[in-house]
Amino acid sequence: MGGPSKPWSRPLAPEWNPPDIDVATPSIARVYDYVLGGKDHYDVDRRAAQSFINAVPQSPLLARDNRLFVRRGVRYLVREAGIRQIIDIGSGLPTAGNVHEIAHEIDPSVRVVYVDNDPIVLAHGRALLDRRPTSTIIQADLREPASIFDDPDTRALIDLDEPFAVLLGGILHHLHDHEDPWALTEEIRTRIPSGGYLLIANFARIGDPRAAELERAFLQGGLSTGRFRTYEEQLRFLEDLELVEPGLVPANDWHPDFETPEDNPVRDLYLGGIGRKR
Fold first, then answer.
1. Is 56 part of any domain?
2. Distance (Å, rounded) from C-alpha 76 to C-alpha 138?
3. Can you point out the beta strands (E) in the chain?
4. Percentage of the chain with pLDDT > 70?
5. How far apart are the C-alpha atoms of 167 and 110, rounded to whole Å?
6. Contact yes or no for 200/66 (Cβ under 8 A)
7. Sheet strands (E) in 90-210
8. Which of 55, 168, 200, 207 is most deeply packed, by most CB within 10 A?
9. Any residues with CB less than 8 A from the CB of 206 and at least 6 apart, and which?
10. Does the pLDDT of residue 93 top 90, yes or no?
11. pLDDT by residue (tens digit) across 231-265?
12. Is the distance from CB of 173 to CB of 227 less than 8 angstroms?
């Protein structure tokens, strides 16, 4: 993850410019793509990224930590928890080790629905998943959970009465408090059946003094989103769920494996956890 990421399939470079892609406003997905070493970003995205890199030069490692945590979470959900259905909300642009690839290494029958509201993400996903019967991508927004769960393509792949996992990796911190991310996650939790799971991973304010500086850079540097929330604020996202050990912790402390960096200068700036619905 530290080096350049690999595309899902044929690279759709910035020169490929569908008319519905806004190249004048920073995109969360494209900014993440830039800091992960991808190819699908524009000057406006690079400028937005540079604002938080200038504040904390190690901040791109947060994107890496998120990707690695989601991969470990998917392996746990499929191998240990027996989950065979996954909805990945805010999936972002492709990189090496996408959710369906990680899941299918364990069981090729796992069904995955990717969800994003960015047109360039949709273009990449559709190019890759066009002929994959076990995976699809839909255009929908976390702010409207019904648009995700009621989408015909979601219902075609996911049996909503059987256990499934919802992934919210690196997306809730891009919702402002006035958008009430706690109410949105509560609505998602009500849709998860007994035996299902919710994964979260977010910027954290748990003691590292750089959190406040980074939050200012995210909010004022062009991207205009990026809340660093306390442990207690984030624990509310998993309310009424049974936490998988070791609970809600710095993301690299959650089931570390051979990919997890031992020396992590941004350890206390990112939390991750998984909860199971009883």
1. no
2. 25
3. 85-89, 111-116, 135-139, 165-169, 197-203, 242-243, 249-250, 270-276
4. 92
5. 14
6. no
7. 111-116, 135-139, 165-169, 197-203
8. 200
9. 230, 231, 250, 268, 271
10. no
11. 999 999 999 999 999 999 999 999 999 999 989 99
12. yes
Residue 20 lies in a domain: no
Strand-pairing partners, residue 198, are 166, 275
Residue in 149, 224, 151 with CA at minimum distance from that of residue 189:
149
- Cβ–Cβ under 8 Å, residues 84 and 111: yes
Which domain, by its residues, includes 181?
63-208+229-276
The first and second tokens of residue 270, run together, are: 């990112």
Beta-bridge mates of residue 271: 202, 250
Mean pLDDT calculated for residue range 194-219: 97
Residue 131 has pLDDT above 80, yes or no: no
- The count of domains in the chain is 1
- In terms of Cβ atoms closer than 10 Å to its own Cβ (0-12, 13-18, 19+), residue 272 is buried
- How far from 24 is each of 17, 45, 131, 227, CA to CA, in Å? 12, 9, 33, 23
Residues 6 or more apart in contact with residue 41 via CB below 8 angstroms = 14, 27, 30, 31, 33, 34
Q: Is 50 a residue whose pLDDT tops 80?
A: yes
User: Is the overall model pTM greater than 0.90, yes or no?
Assistant: yes
Residue 132 placed within a domain: yes
Is 263 a domain residue?
A: yes
Which DSSP symbol is given to 167?
A: E
| Alpha carbons 100 and 113: distance in angstroms, whole number | 9
pLDDT per residue over 51-90, tens digit each?
A: 999 999 999 999 999 999 999 999 999 999 999 999 999 9
CATH of the domain at 252: 3.40.50.150
